[in-house]
Design goal:
The complex is a heterodimer of chains A (340) and B (285). Chain A is mainly α and 340 residues long. Chain A is 78% helix and 0% strand. Chain A has helices at 3-26, 34-45, 55-89, 102-115, 118-121, 125-148, 153-176, 180-190, 199-218, 220-226, 230-235, 240-262, 268-280, 284-309, 317-339. Chain A is globular and about 65 Å long. The chains are: A mainly alpha (340), B alpha/beta (285).
Chain lengths: 340, 285
């Protein structure tokens, strides 16, 4: 993998993302002029000469659309970085945050908040409950895997499956007992989406996702050593157990925050690293930044699709990423079979 | 005019001016994101004041105002804040269950909103109509609506005085209506006892076939939707319910069953006429 090619990929993604975000900020149920949006952004951020849009459009851009587009980028980037990290830690290209019980735990927290009535009465109650659920699931996973043997990869995987199944059972139980008019709230969350997300959501999610993501990026060399295998990593002087624990905790933090902010968004953590690995290389220090940009791009475009299409049909964000991700995976599988 | 009198008049004028500045002007462009509000607003406001209603207001089976809202009024399938801001309403009517995160963004967008609350009892519905009328600057229209609502319920109560109250259980795919629900209030006002509340269910909650069977209601109440009656008749246990075997099943049009507006009184009348046909005629006064 040549350094020039890697650089081209990174620069291409770094240029495509702001253009896509600008397009996403312009399109929606109320179209805004592309250059008008650019002018308003330059004016609002003080980066250049521009002018605000007329009043309703300016409000739509700055209060509703901009935080949503930025949050889509942060969430997508975070999920992709988590996917790339877990795939290296577990040495399995199909690993994602679901293995840590994050999605199932977050869903349980969200459904509990809806069932108990918190989500309908308190600002930010749903994302906070989802985040608490995700972190609780990860702590339970850790405690169980320690109690059962010491936390080898195999034990972690099996314990993760069990914790996810338990959380899913709890979610189903609460969902069945939830009143019909509340069920829709939680279904929208479970299906993934960024409706009703503003600057406050962005601020809180960004601290966790960008903070955690940057730490993972800083630890990319550790990730690369760990991906060689436990014995090889230990021979190189890495405290394998501790290093893996820290990486998994960071991944859980980022995935928990992303899931809490946007609900369940499948395939981003699988597709973005998988698509970028042949272009950017498998080393964490190269893959992680590229995966972040690709994941951000994917979710920004998917959210744009939901806003443009769902004027007449309720199209959840999670469905769009699954509609894109599932065929991509089948295609990739077919290509790898053909190569063999 | 003496100096003291002039000072008192000036003070009075100042107080009046302050009061008129503090009070928000009556809204002229109203958007509703709540079907109950749609049903009330259609009655109490000129239709040109409505800039948006829910898409459900056109659904037969959900709405009691099908065909009443002009096609020029925007329809909202979901709470789309971008479209809402573009319509620039003076007031947005939302429901008790509207996501607080969405309400936060609504405020940040500079839009005023009114939340319809307390729609779990007939008294709660009544108060919600009056509150909505006050918020819309259409107090007289709301009071007129409530007067008809009160009169209908009062006549129903009079007709049902001393009646033997059958035990009614609402059934919808394993769920029932317990205490503190609008359907529970509907059953009580129609001259019956709510089995869901009697067996300890609170809110709309799961009851399960075995518990429903053990409760042995006199009448089963279901909504008119495809397969509702058939699923009851074909259920291995519920088909053996005394009420089902004796065909004491009341199928209620869903737009009435779920009505939380002034039409809740019509729903009470409908159920009462099905339960007590000797006391309550099918046609309403």
């Amino acid at each position: 993998m040549s350094a020039a090619r890697r650089r081209r990929v990174l620069v291409g993604l770094a240029l495509a993302l702001p253009v896509a975000m600008l397009g996403a900020a312009s399109a929606g149920s109320v179209p805004l002029p592309f250059f008008g949006v650019l002018g308003s952004l330059l004016h609002g951020t003080g980066l250049g000469a521009g002018a605000p849009l007329p009043p309703p459009s300016e409000t739509i851009l700055w209060v509703v659309r901009l935080p949503r587009v930025l949050l889509a980028a942060v969430v997508g980037g975070g999920l992709a970085v988590v996917g790339a990290t877990l795939q290296s830690v577990f040495r399995n290209p199909l690993a994602d945050s679901g293995l840590l019980g994050v999605g199932a735990g977050a869903a349980l927290g969200a459904v509990a908040a809806v069932r108990l009535g918190w989500a309908g009465s308190t600002f930010l109650a749903l994302p906070f409950a989802a985040f608490a659920g995700a972190m609780t699931a990860v702590l339970v996973l850790y405690a169980l895997s320690q109690a059962l043997g010491g936390g080898t990869l195999h034990e972690l995987l099996l314990t993760g499956i069990s914790v996810s199944a338990l959380a899913a059972a709890g979610t189903s139980m609460l969902l069945v007992a939830t009143e019909e008019f509340r069920v829709k709230t939680v279904l929208f969350w479970l299906a993934g989406g960024l409706d009703g997300r503003g600057w406050m959501h962005l601020r809180i999610a960004s601290i966790l996702i960008l903070g955690g993501g940057a730490t993972l990026l800083a630890a990319a060399r550790v990730l690369d050593v760990l991906s060689l295998g436990d014995e090889e990593a230990a021979a190189l002087g890495l405290p394998v157990h501790f290093a893996r624990l820290v990486l998994l905790a960071l991944a859980a933090l980022v995935a928990g925050a992303a899931t809490a902010a946007a609900g369940s968004i499948p395939f981003v953590g699988l597709v973005a690293p998988h698509a970028l690995r042949p272009l950017a290389g498998a080393l964490g220090r190269h893959l992680l930044p590229a995966a972040f940009l690709a994941g951000a791009l994917l979710v920004v475009l998917a959210d744009l699709a939901t806003r443009v299409i769902s004027q007449n049909v309720d199209l959840p964000l999670g469905s769009v990423t699954a509609f894109v991700g599932a065929p991509y995976f089948l295609l990739a599988l077919r290509q790898s079979e053909t190569r063999r | 005019m003496s100096g003291r009198r002039r000072a008192v008049r000036m003070l009075g004028a100042l107080l009046l001016a302050t009061a008129s500045l503090g009070a928000a002007p009556a809204p002229r462009r109203i958007a509703s994101l709540n079907l109950t509000a749609d049903e009330v607003l259609v009655e109490i406001l000129p239709t040109d004041s409505l800039v948006a209603v829910t898409a459900a207001s056109d659904d037969v089976g959900s709405s009691n105002v099908v065909g009443r809202v002009p096609p020029t009024v925007a329809r909202f399938r979901k709470a789309d804040l971008e479209r809402l801001v573009a319509l620039a309403p003076d007031l947005v009517v939302v429901s008790e269950y509207t996501d607080p995160d969405f309400l936060y963004l609504l405020e940040r967008s500079g839009l005023r909103y009114h939340r319809m609350e307390g729609l779990r009892s007939l008294a709660g519905n009544r108060q919600a109509i009056l509150d909505l009328g006050a918020a819309e600057g259409a107090r007289a229209g709301a009071e007129k609506l409530v007067a008809r609502y009160d009169a209908l319920l009062a006549e129903l109560a009079e007709r049902l005085r001393g009646v033997t109250r059958p035990r009614v259980m609402y059934w919808a795919s394993g769920m029932t209506a317990g205490g503190d629900t609008a359907i529970g209030a509907l059953i009580d006002s129609a001259g019956a006892r709510n089995v869901g509340a009697e067996i300890g269910v609170v809110g709309i909650g799961p009851v399960g076939a075995e518990r429903a069977f053990a409760a042995d209601p006199d009448v089963v109440l279901i909504g008119v939707w495809p397969g509702a009656r058939e699923s009851l008749m074909q259920h291995p246990l519920l088909s053996r319910l005394r009420a089902v075997r004796e065909s004491r099943i009341v199928e209620m049009p869903t737009e009435l069953l779920v009505a939380l507006s002034q039409h809740a009184a019509d729903a009470c009348w409908y159920l009462a006429s099905a339960l007590h046909p000797d006391r309550v005629p099918r046609s309403r006064p």
